[in-house]
Every structure is written in C-alpha cells, then in structure tokens.
Amino acid sequence: MADGVFTVIVVTPEERLLDVAARALVLRTSDGELTILDGHTPLVTDVVPGDVRVDVDEGEPIHLAVHGGYLQVETGTGLDGDDDSGDEGVKSERSTRATLLAGIAELSDRIDVPRAQAARTRAEARVEELRAGGRTSGSANSTASADGEPLTAEDVELASAEAALRRAEVRLEVAGVSA
User: Fold this and answer.
1) Which of 35, 86, 164, 177 has the fewest CB atoms in 10 Å of its CB?
2) Is the dihedral of CA 116, 118, 119, 125 positive or negative?
C-alpha cells in the first residue's frame, strides 16, 4: 500500500460491509470525534451512533450510518494482507488496520430514504405522545434513573422511542436528507 494508506474494515453480524484502502477514518466515540490515519496508535474504543466517513485512497468518501459499536486499530507489519516474511533483508512497511464492529451499519447509498422518513415520523409521534403523557407513578422495576427515581414502564418505552427516532435521524443524515 502507498504511504498514508491503511486498511479499513467494517463488519456487522450479517456481513463484511467494507474492506477498503483508506487515507482517513472519521467517526464519533463517547469521548468525541476521532480521526484515524495511517500509523495511528493502537486502540480499542466505542463508536456512538452517527455518520462514519471513510476517505478512500481513490474516489469519493464513503459514508455509513452506524448505530453503535466498537473500533479496534492495529499497527504493525503484515496487517495489509501482504506476507513478506520470506524476504530476508527487506524492510517491511508499517501498516495500520482499523476494524469497526457494528451491530447495525448501512452504506449511505443503500439507505431506504422513504422507509427512514416513515420511521422518523412514527418515532416523533410516539415520543411526543409519551412526553405529553408525563411521568406516571405506576409499577416500577428495580432499575433506577440517574436521579435515583425508579424507572417506570413509560420511562423505558420513551427511551426506546427516542432511540428509534435517533436511528432514523442518523440514517437520514447519512443519506443527505435534511430535516
């Protein structure tokens, strides 16, 4: 691989979604935005839902809607798939491999925009309905909120509806559809 180029792999439970030569990988973690370049320090970190951009070696950047996961960055020799172990006296180049493991990830050109818009509309309506109902003091389970109050079934349902809304918004953002 050329200088400044490294391997980016995106894997979901269903498929190896991407395996490309890249110049940069840009994504968000719980600590903030992160850019990976060739020779990056090895690390393992979380990936929060959002747009993941892969600046490929040749061509337009690839965008993915990623709904959370983990990133591993490895740096060393032989990570690009080349086996130069038999070449004595030949200095191997330093290589980097960034592997993103995501439960759900979609390439921007594969996003079903009408379906995502319908999902956003349904989720917005459900969130509004649940928020309008306010917090009730129904039966609580053993889980508590950040302020120590027990969570109700309505709290859990609201969190689920908000997560569905966020997933739809991420899909639409990555597909280039404005709100």
Assistant:
1) 86
2) positive
Output phi, psi for 145, to 5 deg: -80, 180
100, 26 in Cβ contact below 8 A? no
Shared domain check, 22 and 103: yes
For residue range 38-95, what is the model confidence (pLDDT) as tens digits? Answer: 999 999 999 999 999 999 998 999 999 999 999 999 988 666 544 444 444 443 355 8
Residue 169, number of CB atoms within 10 A of its CB: 20
Do 30 and 90 reside in the same domain of the chain? yes
Burial of 52 (0-12, 13-18, 19+ CB in 10 A): buried
Domain containing 64 — which CATH number? 2.60.15.10
60 and 134 share one domain: no
- As a 3-state breakdown, the chain gives helix, strand, coil percent values, each rounded to 5, of 25, 40, 35
